[in-house]
Sequence to fold (410 residues):
Amino acid sequence: MANLKFSDFTPYATTPVTATSGLVAYEGTTNIQFTPVQLAPFTGIYAANGIIGTARTALLTDILRFRDFTNSNDIFTLNSNGTFTLGKSAVNAGGYSNVSIGDSASTASTFGVAVGRLAVIGSTHSYATAVGNQATSGGSFSIQVGGGSTAAAGSIAIGYSSGSAATYAHNYGYQAEGAGNNSITFNASGTSAAAPSTQYAFGVYMSSNTTPDFQVAHDGNSFITGTGNFGIGTSSPLYTLDTKGSVAGNWLARVENDSGTGLGLQVKVNSTDSTKRTFSTRNAGGYTMSVYNDGVVEINGQAYTELYTNATNLVVNWNNGNVQTVTVSATSPTFAPSNPKAGATYILMVTQGATPTGISWDGTVKWSGGAPTLSSTTGQIDVITLICYDAAANSGAGAYYGSASLNLVL
Fold:
């Protein structure tokens, strides 16, 4: 074998390879023969398992393809920039910026992702994502997840057969197909398509696929449907809200305890006396407060402010209450209350302390016949009634008309 040219060998033409055939290699001083049995593990690509013992680098300068056994359909293609398609007949028709995964999945635009059998992204729908059996993009920057789902430009559709042609719309659930632009639709009715057309609306469909159980809309048409109760609380609602006139007597809403027997609040609008009453409230005890359209407030029951016990020596803040008690024990403390309101009536119950004294009204109060002389015995009480007619007078202390009831308790 040594010093022989390849042309000196008999060409292999018709002579078949047999078990006695071989391949001879020259190692410098020795000829070595390899039989077909010995060479068998090294014939064909991936004919045998092996180990790459050290790091290897493979440069991909074109498309790497794996095809089915008929050599007619691509199963996996890998582009030189790293994008790929995976699945029988998956197509990346939009260039190297897309990903297609699934039987016949196809992306024809740019920067698209199609995952699922027959998931399709159209040629003009860039940056779209379609996931699910026959999920189909309906516009750029759209997301569709679920069998047969589709979404227009800027929209999201999640659920079997969800989505519509509305732009910037969100649809969630089986056949949620809100057709209003910039709308949000949840369909949990389990029947057929919920396809409201109201723009800028948020709707939840549970008991019906035509009328939402809950809707918030930009045009003011917002509501909760049904004649049941809307509960606030844990396992047993602490408060309930009856809707759509379900409470007897045209009361539109009611808030009460979970047993339905405790005190609560009921509200009605436009009662049978439509020329007068516009808004009314009633608790479970039957007491009513009505606000009429002419500004009149009618209270069928008691109305009062809590009695406020004040600090010593006439430190008065009317925000603490219209009726206040005060004990005076200094020499003529000055009456200079804060936060008066013109038109309000205030009452002071003045108790004389250990050192009885008068009060310096300092021009804030006008009296009939002059300022009263208060009691001079410790423990005695004088009641002063004041009507404020100017809240800004006297450096914000107010100006009042006053009357007094003296020496009431010893």
